[in-house]
Amino acid sequence: MLSVNQALEQVSQHSYPLSTHECSAFDALGAALAEDLVSPVESPAFDKAMMDGFALRSADTCGGSANLEIVEEITAGNTASESIQEGMAARIMTGAPMPKGADSVVMVEHTQIDSENVDRVQILDEVPTGSHVLKRGGLLEKGQVVLSAGSIIRPIEVGILADLAGGRVTVRRKPTVAIISTGDELVEAHEEPGPGQIRNTNGPMLAAMVTEAGAEAKRLGIVRDNREHLYAAIQEGLEADILLISGGMSVGVKDLGPGILAEHGVEKVFHKVNLKPGKPLWFGKREGSGTPTLVFGLPGNPVSSLVCFHLFVRSALNAMMGRTAVSPFVPGFLLTRDFANPGDRPVFFPAYACRKEGAGATIAPLNWKGSADLATLAKANALACFDANSQYEAGQFISAVMV
Ligand SMILES: Nc1nc2c(c(=O)[nH]1)N[C@H]1C(S)=C(S)[C@@H](COP(=O)(O)OP(=O)(O)OC[C@H]3O[C@@H](n4cnc5c(N)ncnc54)[C@H](O)[C@@H]3O)O[C@H]1N2
Ligand code: MOO
């Protein structure tokens, strides 16, 4: 059986970046940049006042104070018409371009104007050269790489792209993800379950995780364990970039699913991974004339599906969206209590991670009742990683997968 890292390696080898297109930076929120953003200009484009006050020559204030003639007022968005000579100052507002000849700005709070003589300003202290002036090119040089290909577009990047790229950006298209929930026992959320029936939890949860991951979910609903029905649903699902089939992994896909998937040209890459929960995970790929489709058969138990999504499906989505590869494992969490994993599989245990004053990042395994227990995960924000057949003590450092 493959280890989690071997399975992740396989998923990464078979994932491929999708095609690129240009769109508005706002619409690209959550997507990854397909190309580096190189600054086309230097920033700021002019020497800029950073305080409301007076632009002056610092040499005029040598010795502690000065009385200067106010020659004009420069507001942001306007340029100076006068050059500042010895003994002169210009009233200036934050963001306005510095007038020629001036090298410094004194804050208005450090000046005084006599009401009898409003054309002159008293500078109260010596002003060091360069005070409150942001030099041209002081933030960015022309040609400097500001954003790297693969970085995710957050509100910060939307702002930077507005400044340097006219609000446009080239990103990879969003992957489409079809979701099929298999099982004769399933009814939809709005339906009343009959004897032995349960509501379809995985369909909506997977669609929500897909959307949260920045991809486009296409729910194909519940499919009964019936050949014709499953054949048609898989055919439709294979039009997407990724097909998720939940349920029937330990037996179902092994019998019905792989046969139908093979008929549609899907080749198995692996079946079963050494982890708990999620062992029956199935992964395959269809290489067609068009773009390939990755197929994940997710175990039916809701938490098993969730764990497999966060470990494997999210990695595939990130690669397809061209995001810089990041390991799903975050190291350095201090375990809050003793924990034993007597089982022969590494376990990804629902837990609550937080930062505590003086203790750094801590992680507390929850009182979880197994792969069918989704309700306890309402308190979880992480999966604590424990090796097989192992004993951990409070205070040990462990890794986690954030969920
Ligand atoms: N003989 C064996 N039995 C099982 C094995 C095994 O290796 N040998 N593996 C166990 C493990 S581990 C898991 S996990 C489950 C995986 O089961 P399947 O992927 O085959 O899924 P099902 O049997 O269809 O369902 C399991 C469980 O999950 C419920 N379920 C299914 N779909 C949904 C859904 N959309 N929403 C909510 N709940 C769902 C289903 O009713 C079952 O209770 O198999 C073990 N058995
Ligand atoms: O691996 Mo199953 O997913 O234990 O519950």
Layout of strands and helices, then pairs:
Layout: H1 4-14, E1 20-24, E2 37-38, E3 48-49, E4 53-56, E5 66-74, E6 88-92, E7 104-107, E8 111-112, E9 120-123, E10 133-134, E11 145-147, H2 155-164, E12 168-172, E13 176-182, E14 186-187, E15 198-199, H3 202-212, E16 216-223, H4 227-237, E17 242-246, H5 252-263, E18 266-271, E19 282-286, E20 293-298, H6 302-320, E21 329-335, E22 339-341, E23 347-356, E24 360-365, E25 382-386, E26 390-392, E27 397-402
Parallel strand pairs: 5-6, 13-16, 13-17, 14-15, 17-20, 21-24
Antiparallel strand pairs: 1-12, 2-11, 3-10, 4-6, 4-7, 5-9, 8-9, 18-19, 19-20, 21-27, 22-26, 23-24, 23-25, 25-27
Walk me through this protein's architecture.
The chain has 403 residues and is of the alpha+beta class. The protein folds into four domains: 4-19 and 174-320, Molybdenum Cofactor Biosythetic Enzyme, Chain A; 24-42 and 141-172, Molybdopterin biosynthesis moea protein, domain 2 (Alpha-Beta Complex); 48-134, Molybdopterin biosynthesis moea protein, domain 3 (Molybdopterin biosynthesis moeA protein, domain 3), CATH 2.170.190.11; 329-402, MoeA, C-terminal, domain IV (Beta-clip, Beta Barrel). The chain has six helices and 27 strands. It has helices at residues 4-14, 155-164, 202-212, 227-237, 252-263, 302-320; strands at residues 20-24, 37-38, 48-49, 53-56, 66-74, 88-92, 104-107, 111-112, 120-123, 133-134, 145-147, 168-172, 176-182, 186-187, 198-199, 216-223, 242-246, 266-271, 282-286, 293-298, 329-335, 339-341, 347-356, 360-365, 382-386, 390-392, 397-402. The strands form eight sheets. The protein has a six-stranded mixed beta sheet, with no helix packed on it. A six-stranded mixed beta sheet has the order 16-13-17-20-19-18, with helices on both faces. A five-stranded mixed beta barrel has the order 21-24-23-25-27. A hairpin with a 7-residue loop joins β8 (111-112) and β9. α1 crosses α6 (302-320), α3 packs parallel to α6 (302-320) and α4 packs across α5. The model has no long low-confidence stretch (mean pLDDT 94). The structure holds ligand LQZAQKY5 and molybdate ion (MOO). The site of molybdate ion (MOO) has 8 residues, from loops.
